[in-house]
């Protein structure tokens, strides 16, 4: 008896299992070179399917060595053009031709291959993929109990797990013996095989040394070289399933998303409970009679069977969105919105009238909105997202209501400064916490704090004033907004006459362009404000490191422009880096001066 196994049954490992069950007698197995080529290509790309298939071939070779079967490799290897057309069935066609030539039974678990072969008169045995309805135990599940959220296995390291409840998770070592590469390879193989055969599992993707599997309620990521520098398996599952009633503000949120289709972002840091809340919202909307779908890559939300879960179509979430627009759901749960293309898909569906619940990473509630700015036209933002729900330690900490108006931004007084403004209001109190608007060419996200000593908009105006004066002044420029319609600008004394101009024509033109009155003063006037030989500002830490002098102002000063003083003596003006430091080359004059002042016991202080 001759059989020709195709790629699908070699990957499944079904040939050796049927031989060992004595289902074939005096068997000759003809392995197509085309199938070997496909398996080799998959293995070279780091795909687990290719490695599984090659392991099955090795098992068949062992059966041949034991005298249980005859084994040959036959047929032609596909050429480059046939490989390119493999998705269209060219490789399958070569394998069918071999079965016809050898008058052999084609063994396959690919339903399309089976039907095409039967239509062409090929003798086919179709092995239907096995289904296991009962709960499946894979090696990795032995590490789980009701308090384990995730398991982390890495070759050469002891297995670890995140244990606890949302908001109180700790990483613990769960076995003293280190994991070996062969052990992890065996576990990975078992996971993939069971996912393929289970009605409760599927392989999300498998390429380049990375495999993602969904099995029961677990999302399992498998990484191996060359994608990673070692063999690693990470399994994550929800440790609890909650309803929307378990959250603070549940009734208000229910009313909000039930009254009409909304654009909602569920935001928080990793592990904050965003997906758990998304599941609760999905189940609530489904119970209320809304048609709910999900869009996930990978699919790992734990929702009821009435909610269909979609992933990327041909590796494109844009194509998935096109399909969903034909399905016309009331709400789509998008887990998770991360890339620019994701936000654009979210916006397109929202503007088409679909209610959208997006899950996104953010360290603060306002950061979720800022991730949208620049990816969606500013004026469309409130139509795309009108609600932000921020979670921390599995609890709702903040809800924002996003609305649109035309007004003078807080801190501005001139009527001609009115512009479109996005107001970010606290959902509970109704108070505006942030305003988003354009100022010049910038998009500004400005906190609204009435009690702040210096209005936020003044700080922005000071930068604009300095930018304008840079056109006329070569030396150092300091600007201070002292009221809504007055700025004091300090410049070198020898440049004041030139800036003022004949009859004040230059300064009048600057005032007209800026829309504010300007009082020009020499730097010496600003220095008179220094009291008791000290600047009224905090001291900063100064370190000499290798070839640099590092002035540490603190991260809260990142991107601010500040003046540096030693005692009452002005040193220089600089813009603070993103890490809160100012770095100066050691050999420069200013670096030497700073070191000299420190050696004389002077504190280096800053003033804005």
From TrEMBL:
Gene3D superfamilies reported for this sequence: 5'-nuclease, K Homology domain, type 1, P-loop containing nucleotide triphosphate hydrolases
Domain of life from the UniProt record: Archaea
Domain PIN: 1-115
Single GO term (MF): RNA binding
Protein keywords: RNA-binding
Domain K Homology residue range list: 483-563
Domain AAA+ ATPase: 260-384
PROSITE patterns: KH_TYPE_1 (PS50084)
Family from the record: In the N-terminal section; belongs to the PINc/VapC protein family.
Protein name: ATPase (PilT family)
Organism whose genome encodes this protein: Methanohalarchaeum thermophilum
């Amino acid at each position: 008896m001759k059989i020709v196994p195709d790629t699908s049954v070699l990957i499944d490992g079904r040939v050796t299992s049927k031989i060992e069950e004595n289902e074939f007698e005096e068997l000759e197995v003809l392995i197509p070179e085309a199938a070997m080529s496909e398996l080799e290509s998959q293995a070279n790309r780091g795909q687990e399917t290719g490695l599984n298939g090659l392991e099955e071939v090795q098992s068949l070779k062992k059966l041949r060595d034991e005298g249980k079967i005859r084994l040959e490799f036959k047929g032609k290897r596909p050429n480059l053009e046939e490989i390119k057309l493999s998705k269209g069935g060219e490789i399958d066609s070569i394998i069918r031709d071999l079965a016809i030539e050898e008058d052999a039974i084609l063994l396959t678990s690919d339903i399309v291959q089976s039907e095409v072969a039967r239509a062409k008169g090929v003798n086919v045995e179709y092995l239907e993929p096995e289904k296991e309805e009962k709960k499946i135990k894979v090696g990795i599940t032995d590490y789980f109990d009701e308090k384990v959220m995730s398991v982390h296995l890495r070759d050469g390291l002891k297995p670890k797990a995140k244990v606890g409840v949302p908001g109180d998770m700790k990483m613990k070592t769960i076995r003293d013996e280190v994991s070996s590469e062969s052990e992890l390879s065996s576990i990975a193989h078992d996971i993939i095989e069971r996912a393929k055969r289970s009605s409760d599992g599927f392989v999300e993707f498998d390429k380049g040394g990375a495999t993602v599997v969904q099995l029961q309620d677990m999302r399992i990521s498998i990484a191996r070289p060359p994608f990673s520098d070692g063999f690693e398996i990470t399994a994550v599952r929800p440790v609890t399933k909650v309803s929307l009633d378990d959250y603070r503000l549940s009734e208000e949120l229910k009313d909000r998303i039930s009254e009409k289709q909304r654009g909602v972002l569920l935001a928080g840091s990793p592990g904050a409970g965003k997906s758990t809340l998304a599941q609760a919202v999905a189940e609530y909307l489904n119970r209320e009679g809304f048609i709910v779908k999900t869009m996930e890559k990978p699919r790992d939300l734990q929702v009821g069977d009435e909610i269909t879960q979609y992933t990327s179509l041909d590796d494109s979430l844009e194509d998935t969105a096109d399909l969903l627009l034909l399905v016309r759901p009331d709400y789509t749960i998008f887990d998770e919105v991360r890339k620019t293309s994701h936000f654009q898909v979210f916006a397109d569906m929202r503007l088409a009238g679909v209610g959208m619940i997006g899950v996104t990473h953010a360290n603060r509630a306002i950061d979720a909105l800022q991730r949208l700015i620049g990816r969606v036209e500013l004026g469309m933002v409130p139509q795309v997202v009108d609600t932000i729900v921020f979670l921390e330690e599995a609890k709702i900490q903040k809800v924002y209501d996003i609305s649109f108006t035309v007004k003078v931004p807080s801190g501005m007084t001139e009527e001609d400064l009115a512009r479109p403004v996005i107001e970010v209001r606290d959902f509970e109190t109704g108070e505006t916490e942030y305003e988003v608007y354009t100022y010049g060419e910038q998009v500004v996200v400005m906190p609204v704090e009435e009690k702040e000593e210096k209005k936020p908009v003044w700080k922005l105006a000071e930068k604009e004033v300095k930018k304008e004066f840079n056109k006329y002044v070569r030396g150092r420029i300091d600007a201070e907004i002292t009221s809504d319609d007055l700025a004091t600008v300090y410049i070198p004394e020898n440049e004041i006459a030139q800036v003022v101009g004949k009859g004040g024509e230059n300064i009048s033109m600057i005032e007209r362009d800026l829309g504010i009155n300007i009082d020009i003063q020499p730097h010496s006037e600003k220095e008179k404000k220094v009291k008791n030989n000290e600047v009224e500002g905090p001291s900063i830490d100064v370190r000499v490191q290798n070839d640099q002098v590092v002035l540490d102002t603190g991260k809260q000063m990142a991107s601010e422009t500040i003046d540096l003083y030693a005692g009452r003596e002005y040193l220089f003006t600089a813009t603070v880096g993103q890490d809160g430091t100012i770095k100066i080359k050691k050999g420069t004059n200013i670096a030497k001066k700073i070191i000299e002042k420190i050696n004389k016991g002077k504190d280096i202080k800053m003033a804005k």
